[in-house]
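[recover] target loaded
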């Protein structure tokens, strides 16, 4: 992945992304070529040197049956959004602005291990359920949290037989947080307001957080009567 220094995600941002992400694209190279499946993962940081992503696929999905050659890849995504040049203060100043796309993503590489074991798979199902039910409940007006135990046991056992567990034992991670850090500080409030105005609070918060230090340096420089330098595009 191409990662300019000002877009490099720090370890804390990577850990948060892996813990909170929704679904990821699992890509494996097999003797039949590339295979890909979008599926949710639960992140287990204590598994091995770099942690692991735990998930499951349908038993009828051929991807788990075809051995992966070399490293497998999970593409994990955070918030992403179109950024209009109309939001930049620079548009009114000189007009030399163009659209772009902001995003947070991690390319997670690792060794893919298949777990065709109902007990292992059930543990992952419970982890995923707890993770996403908790996230759902953070929104107002939600119904009570659902648990695997709310369904009949025989039904759950039948569902577990229809899926197979996957563990991506992480070997390395390449992560990028492209959140307008290359724009002048004076452009950031417009980006945050523009994203929030169309209801994309996650992207707005990510841009604001990624540029907090620059904004504080700008405020300090202003109080001291200096003109903060602008970062290039």
């Amino acid at each position: 992945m191409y990662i300019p220094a000002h877009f490099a995600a720090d370890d804390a941002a990577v850990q948060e992304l892996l813990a909170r992400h929704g679904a990821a694209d699992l890509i494996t190279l097999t003797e039949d070529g590339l295979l890909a499946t979008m599926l949710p993962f639960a992140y287990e940081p204590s598994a091995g040197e770099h942690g692991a992503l735990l998930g499951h696929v349908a038993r009828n999905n051929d991807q788990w049956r075809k051995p992966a050659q070399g490293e497998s890849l999970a593409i994990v995504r955070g918030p992403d959004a179109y950024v209009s040049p109309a939001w930049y203060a620079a548009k009114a100043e000189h007009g030399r602005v163009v659209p772009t796309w902001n995003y947070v993503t991690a390319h997670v590489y690792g060794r893919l291990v298949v777990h065709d074991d109902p007990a292992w798979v059930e543990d992952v199902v419970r982890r995923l359920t707890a993770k996403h039910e908790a996230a759902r409940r953070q929104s107002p007006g939600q119904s009570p949290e659902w648990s695997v135990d709310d369904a009949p046991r025989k039904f759950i056992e039948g569902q577990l037989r229809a899926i197979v567990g996957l563990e991506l034992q992480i070997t390395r991670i390449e992560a990028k947080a492209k959140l307008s850090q290359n724009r002048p500080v004076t452009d950031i409030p417009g980006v945050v307001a523009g994203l929030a105005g169309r209801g994309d609070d996650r992207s707005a918060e990510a841009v604001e957080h990624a540029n907090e230090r620059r904004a504080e340096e700008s405020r300090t420089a202003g109080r001291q009567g200096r003109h903060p330098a602008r970062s290039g595009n």
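[recover] notes: The radius of gyration is 21 Å.
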